[in-house]
Amino acid sequence: MKVLFDPAPPYLRCCVFSNGGSAAHLVKLQGDWVATILRHLGSEAELEAVGYVLYNGGNRIRTAVSLLSRSSLQKIGRCVPLLPEYNSMTLKLAGYGMQHRPTARHLLLCDTAFFTRLSPVVRNYALPYELTRKGLGRYGAFGLCHEWIWQQTRAQTSDATKKVISISLGDHTSLAAIHNGSPRETTTGLTALEGVMSSGGCGDIDPTIVFLLKTAGLSYSDINRILCNESGFAALAGRPCTLGDIVSGPATPALAMAKRLLRYQIIKQIGAMLSALGGVDAFSFASEKPQDMIPFVLEICQALAFLGVRCRPDTGRGRWPRELSAADSAVKVFVHRFDRWAVMKAALESFGNIEQEQQP
Amino acid sequence: MPMKKPQNILVFNCGSSSLGCKIFQAGEVVNTRPIFSAKAHRVGTKGSEPSFVQYEGPALCRKIVEPLPDHRVAARHMLEQIRLNHVLVNLIGHRFVHGGDFFKTAVIIDRIVMQELEQCASLAPIHNPVTLSVIHECQETLSDQLQYAAFDTSFHASIPDYAYTYPVPQRIRKRFHFRKYGFHGLSYAYIAHAAPAVLGLAPENLKMVVCHLGTGGSSVCAVRNGRSMDNSMGYSPLTGLMMSTRCGDIDPMLTLYLMLTYDVRPADLLEMLTEKSGLLGIAGFSSDLRDIIRNMGLKEQERAELAFRMYVHRLRKYIGSYVTALGGIAALVFTDDIGVTNWLVREKACQGLQGFGVKLDRDANRNASGATAALISSKVSRVKVLAMPTAEEWVVAEEGAKLTRGRVQT
Question: Which of A255, A276, A332, B218 ranks highest by number of CB atoms within 10 Å?
Fold first, then answer.
C-alpha cells in the first residue's frame, strides 16, 4: 500500500493506493492530527511508502522525489517561511509519518524542484544582489505537472520535438517553456501568485498596491488574504468561481470579462515563453477536465494563427492525450488529461526505479 | 487673415536620470527642429562618469561638465544659458509622467492645477516630484510665463479593459483608482504618428511593438492603428522591464515576504524597489547600461554580464508577449537613448524573435547612427525593424500650441 499526502490548508488531500485500486479523501485537519494521519496510513505491515507534497522547496530542495531523513526535515523547516501554511503542514505530516511508521519508506515530492534548473538570468529578480545571495528568487511552481506534460508530449512525438510550451489549465493556470526537458522560463515566481491570475489570486499586478493597502492601515494578513483569496476570478465575477464556471458556464457579463482577461493573460504569456525558447515545436495543454477545456484551447489557438497554428475541425472523442493540430499546422497542439494522483504516484514509483537502476 | 506671430515654446522633459529642454517655434504648425536644445546627463546618478549638460543651438553648441545633484539644479543651469543667449520664451511646457485620474489631456498650470499635480507626486515617485521641482524653478526664474503640463498617461487611454484591469476586489480598484495607466505615452504618440511614413506603411491597422529604452526608465508598448493597446508599465512606472534602478515585474507576494521575513519598513522597501534595484541592484557598481556593457567580461565586475543578460531577457519576453497579443506585427521600433544608440541591446533582444518573423541586418544595426531613423531589419525579415529617435518634447510643444491658441502674448 502507498499513501500520498497533499496539503491544502485547512484541508489535507490524501490518496491511498492498494491492490484494490485507489481512494482519494479530503480531510479537514483539526484536533488530533496524528490520529487522522494514522487512520489513512493503515498498519505498519502493509504500508510500503508514503509521499508528502512540498509546494515550495526554494533553493534547498532540488530533486522532484527524494527519500526523507531527519536532515531533510530540517531543510523543509527552513523552507516554511516561503509558503508558511502549506510548508508547515508538509513538515508536520512528514514528522508524524516518520515517527509513527518508521519502517515504511517516506518520500518527499517537491513541486518547485524542476525549476531549480532555471538559469540565474531567469531565476533572479532584479533586486539588490544581497537578496539573491540569500537565496531569494523565482522558484516556480507546479513543476511536477510541467515535467509530466513534457514527458507526455515527447511520448506523443518524435525526438525532433525539442521546444515545448506547457500550459496547465486549472483554477491556478501556469505555463512553462521547456527545451529538451530543461525549463527555460515559467510564469510563476517566488510563489505561485506571480503570473496568470487564479481562482482567488491576483497574478501579475503592480506591487505598489501592497504599499497603498499598508498605508491605508491593513494588516499583512489582510493584504495576503485580499491578494491570494479574494482576487482573480473571485474579484472579477464577484463570487468564488472555478475555471470551469468561466470557460463553460453561462456567460454573464462578469464571467465574460473574467474569460477575456484570462485568455489575454495566457496569450501574452505564451508569447513570453516563445521568445524565451526562440521558437516552439508543440503547445501542450493539460487539464483535469480536458473535454470542458477544448473550446477555450481552440480560442487560444485561433489567436496563435499568425504563428502557423492550425487546428482540426473535428477535435475527436475518447482517449487522451488528443492532438488538436491539423496536418498543415506549423506547431503541434496537444491536450492531455492531468490526473494529479496518478502523476504523483508515477513520480513516487519512478524513485523506486531510479534506486533499482543505481544498484550494482 | 493675418499670419499668426510665431511663439517660442520651451519644453522640459524630466527623465529619471536626465533632463531635456528644447525650444520650438510654433506658428501655424510647430517646427520639428528646435531652435535651442540641451540635455543634462547622469543627473543625480551614482556612476563612474561625471554629469554634464550638452547644449545645441545657433549660438551655443558645447558640453559643460557640471555637478548636477538634482533636476532643479539642472533646470536652473539651462534657464541661465537661455537668458545669456537672449532666446525669447513665450510658453513653458512640461512632460508630466503620471496624471492619475485628474488629467486625461494637457492642462494650463494655475494654482488649483498645481495643487492637483502635487497630489499626483506619489503616483510616480521618481518622475513627478522632480518635474514639480522644475515647475517651481520656472515659476521662480520666469515668474511671468504661462506654464502647462502634458501627460504620458494620456496616450494609453485607449488600452482595452482586459489589459488595464487588475483582478483585485472591486472595492480596492475603486478606492485606489488601481488600474494600469501606462507611461512614456508622449514618446509612443510620436512614434505612432511618425513611424508609418518612415516605414512606408499605411498607418491604418498597422500593428507595431515599440520599445522605449531610456537611460533611466524603459517600457514596451503594443500599438495598433496608432493607438496604445498595452504597455509594460502599470499603475506606477515601477513595473515591467528591468530598469536602471527599478526592479520591473516582481511577484506581488515578494513585497509581503520581504517586509515580514527581513522586517523591512514599507517606505524603505519601496525606496529599495525604485532606487536600488534593476541594473544597479544586480551589477552593484552602476545603474547606467553603458557602464555595465563597458565592464562586461572584466573579472572585478563579474555581475555586469548577468545584469545585461537579465535586462535583455526581460525585454525579449515583453516583445514576444505583445507580438502574440497583437496576433503578429509589421514593425518593431526601438527608441529613446538606449533604443537608438545601443546596437548590442537591439541585436541581443532580436535573437530568439525569429519565430515572430524578426531578422536583423547585422551591419545596418551596428552602423545605425542614432541621430536619424534607420531601418535595421534584413530584406527577408517579415517584420520591419526600426531604430528611431523619439520626440517627446515636440509632442509636448504640439499640445501646448493647441492648448494656448490665442491665449499667449508674443
Answer: B218
CA–CA separation, B128 vs B134, rounded Å? 10
pLDDT score of A250: 75
- Please tell me the distance in Å from B293's CA to the nearest CA on chain A: 16
Using a CB-CB cut-off of 8 Å, the residues of chain A touching B97 are none
Q: Tell me which residue of A11, A4, A324 sits closest to A144, measured CA to CA.
A: A4
Helices (H) and strands (E) in chain A, counts: 13, 12
For residue B119, report the phi and psi dihedrals to the nearest 5 degrees: -70, -20
Altogether, the residues listed in chain A come to a count of: 360
B162 touches chain A (CB under 8 A): yes
Residue A324 has pLDDT above 90, yes or no: yes
Tens of pLDDT, residues A63-78? 999 999 989 999 999 9
Q: Render the burial of A174-195: b for 16+ CB within 10 Å, e for the rest.
A: bbbbbbeeebbbbbbbbbbbbb
A244-297 pLDDT, tens digit per residue, is 999 987 789 999 999 999 999 999 999 999 999 999 999 999 999 999 999 999
Which grid cell is B77? 543651469
Q: Could you tell me the CA-to-CA distances from A342 to A184, A205, A215, A337, B244 in Å, in that order?
A: 26, 34, 46, 11, 47
Cis peptide before B389 (omega within 30 of 0): no
Residue A158 — very low, low, confident or very high, per pLDDT cuts 50/70/90?
A: confident
Mutate to test the interface with A, among B321, B323, B332, B354 (most CBs of A within 10 A): B321
d(CA B163, CA B144): 43
CB within 8 Å: B167 and A230: no
Interface pTM (ipTM) of the complex? Answer: 0.95
What distance lies between CA B377 and its chain's CA centroid?
24
Residue A243, Cα to own-chain centre: how many angstroms? 15
User: CA of A4: how far to CAs of A140, A337, A340, B31, B324, in Å?
Assistant: 22, 20, 11, 73, 40
Angle, to 10 degrees, between the axis of helix A253-277 and the axis of helix B303-326? 130
Question: Tens of pLDDT along B46-81?
Answer: 666 788 999 887 767 788 888 888 999 999 999 999
Which of A86, A112, A123, A125 best tests the B interface by mutation, with the highest count of B CBs <10 A?
A125
Q: B212: which strand partners?
A: B219, B335
Cell numbers that stand for B359 in this block? 531578422
From CA A146, how far away is CA A182, in angstroms rounded? 10
Burial of B396 per CB tally in 10 Å (0-12, 13-18, 19+): buried
User: Nearest-CA residue of chain A relative to B169?
Assistant: A235
d(CA B356, CA B265): 44
Q: What are phi and psi of B108, to 5 degrees?
A: -70, 140
Residues B184 and B95: their CA atoms lie apart, in Å, by 10
Contact between A34 and A51 (Cβ < 8 Å): no
Where in B169-280 does DSSP place strands (E)? 207-213, 218-224, 227-231
Closest chain A residue by Cα to residue B260:
A220
Chain B CA closest to residue A307 = B356
pLDDT digits (tens, 9 = 90+) for A54-65: 999 999 999 999
Prediction pTM value: 0.91
Coil, helix or strand at residue A114: helix
Task: Give me the amino acid identity at A132.
Answer: T
B248 in A contact zone (CB under 8 Å): yes
Q: What one-character DSSP code corresponds to residue A60?
A: T
- Strands A174-179 and A163-168 turn out to be antiparallel
The shortest C-alpha distance from B124 to chain A (Å) reads 10
Mean pLDDT of A115-139: 96
For chain B, the maximum distance between any two Cα atoms, rounded to a whole number of angstroms, is 71
- pLDDT of A357 reads 47
